[in-house]
Specification:
Blueprint (H helix, E strand, L loop, with lengths): L1 E4 L2 E4 L32 H5 L4 H7 L4 H7 L3 E11 L4 E7 L6 E5 L7 E6 L5 E3 L2 E3 L2 E7 L9 E3 L4 H11 L4 H18 L2 E5 L2 H6 L2 E3 L5 E11 L21 E9 L10
């Protein structure tokens, strides 16, 4: 089993999912969370925003003590995982979070928080006898978002910005198209925005694991907030560029950070 942190890989020998340190008692407050029904990848409501925080709050029958802790949680929206082995490969791949923090997965997990799949070099994935373009999940995380540096995106410039920055991340045309069709409406709706890509903190807080060691792992997680005047003065973020060599795993996703949470995240 392999664990990927900060765009690099490290071996994780013989550890069962339930034994991972992220399965800490503090996560048990979410045990009443009920996983939503999965729905087709390309449904219109999925392309907008499938699991807003309000719905997560409704699904959790909160008492006052839990409500204050949930205030620091965010919805990781539509992380999509693409697999490109050098030859047709059977493997297990997944995300290390408590299972009751996942709000949606498509396909449903095979076991624990893992999918058992057959992946082909052209990116085709076979899971539970169905062909899917990628593995999709959404869930809750208390990850601290960083906005000390990033990109001020002026209203109407979202498409140009995304094309440029996703090319810097070395996403291919298909991945860029999927990312832009999902996130461009959000940038357009927010107007002037500030975007910061969560790199090491995302990889540390939301680990990606695979039973077959990849040669390249590219994880793109975009945190977005409505821009304020101070954001224009922040330094521009440096984007890591990785060569796609051998077995490559690509994941992209993001989070819209509400203004009432910004003070917790800087």
């Amino acid at each position: 089993m392999f664990l990927y942190l900060a765009l690099a890989e490290a071996k994780w020998p013989g550890v069962e999912m339930e034994q991972h340190p992220l399965y800490h008692p503090r996560y048990q407050m979410y045990k009443r969370f009920k996983q939503d029904q999965a729905y087709p990848l390309h449904h219109r409501r999925h392309q907008r925003r499938s699991i807003p925080m309000k719905k997560a709050e409704q699904n959790l029958k909160l008492d006052p003590s839990l409500a204050s802790q949930l205030a620091g949680m965010h919805v990781c929206q539509k992380p999509a995982i693409y697999l490109y082995p050098t030859k047709t490969t059977d493997l297990s791949v997944g995300i290390v979070l408590p299972k009751n923090q996942f709000t949606t997965t498509v396909p449903e997990f095979t076991h624990g928080t893992m999918w058992n799949v057959t992946a082909k070099p052209n990116g085709e994935i076979i899971c539970k006898n169905k062909v899917v373009p990628y593995l999709f999940w959404e869930g809750l995380s208390d990850m601290k978002m960083q906005f000390k540096e990033g990109f001020f995106v002026k209203k109407g410039q979202g498409r140009k910005f995304l094309e440029k920055v996703l090319t810097a991340f070395n996403l291919n045309d298909r991945e860029k198209f999927d990312f832009i069709t999902y996130w461009l409406p959000t940038l357009n709706r927010l107007g002037d925005s500030f975007v910061s890509f969560q790199l090491g903190n995302y990889c540390h807080e939301v680990p990606l694991v695979s039973s077959v060691e990849p040669d390249t792992v590219i994880r793109v997680f975009m945190a977005i907030k409505k821009a304020d005047s101070a954001d224009k003065l922040k330094p521009t973020q440096t984007i890591p560029h990785l060569e796609r060599k051998g077995f490559t795993i690509v994941e992209w996703g993001g989070c819209v950070v509400r203004s009432n949470k910004i003070n917790h995240l800087k």
